[in-house]
Amino acid sequence: MSHHIVEMKDLHYTYPDGTAALHGVSFRITHGETVAIVGANGA
After folding, report:
1. Is the pTM of this model over 0.90?
2. pLDDT tens across 1-43, in order?
3. Is 35 domain-assigned?
4. CA distance 17 to 3
5. Which of 8, 24, 31, 40 has the greatest count of CB atoms below 10 A from its CB?
6. Which residue(s) pair with 28 in the sheet?
7. Which DSSP string do the residues of 4-35 spell out, in sequence order?
8. Is 17 a domain residue?
């Protein structure tokens, strides 16, 4: 049984105006970890 809760590989996101926000982001959150993903404005 895997203890991964969330795993992202090579995540990309581009806003509708063409601005690239994410390029090749990879991460893994495992059981028992506490993680916060926070943007520039705190959101």
Report:
1. no
2. 567 688 999 999 999 999 998 999 999 999 889 988 888 887 6
3. no
4. 38
5. 8
6. 7
7. EEEEEEEEEEE-TTS-EEEEEEEEEEETT---
8. yes
Q: Could you give phi then psi for residue 15, rounded to 5 degrees?
A: -65, 160
* Residue with token string 């105006």: 17
| Cα distance between residue 29 and residue 7, in whole Å | 6
Q: Which domain holds residue 7?
A: 1-28
**Does residue 15 belong to any structural domain of this protein?**
yes
Q: Look at residue 16 and tell me if it is in a domain.
A: yes
Domain count, the chain: 1
Instruction: Say what the pLDDT of residue 26 is.
Output: 95
Question: How far, CA to CA in Å, does 13 sit from each of 27, 28, 33?
Answer: 15, 18, 25
